[in-house]
Backbone:
């Protein structure tokens, strides 16, 4: 995945916080595979069924990114 991201020239990566499991069965986080110093993570609220649900998930995403010191927390 890292090679694909680098080849794409992307600076921002969206992560659907509602649809994706951030931790897999082996205990690995999706975010472990992304260079968080290089890429800004943008929490994507796709899949939320209401505005309240979308705001809640966006806030959870921001809290996670703040803990990881990622620029996406400020967006």
Residues:
């Amino acid at each position: 995945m890292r090679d694909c991201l680098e080849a794409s020239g992307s600076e921002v990566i969206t992560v659907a916080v509602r649809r994706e499991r951030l931790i897999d069965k082996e205990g690995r986080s999706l975010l472990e595979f992304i260079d968080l110093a290089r890429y800004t993570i943008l929490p994507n609220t796709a899949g939320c069924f209401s505005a309240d649900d979308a705001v809640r998930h966006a806030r959870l995403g921001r809290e996670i990114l703040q803990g990881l010191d990622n620029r996406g927390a400020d967006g």
Q: What stands out?
A: The CA atoms of residues 14 and 37 lie 15 Å apart. The radius of gyration is 13 Å. The helical segments are 2-8, 51-67. The beta strands are 12-16, 40-44.
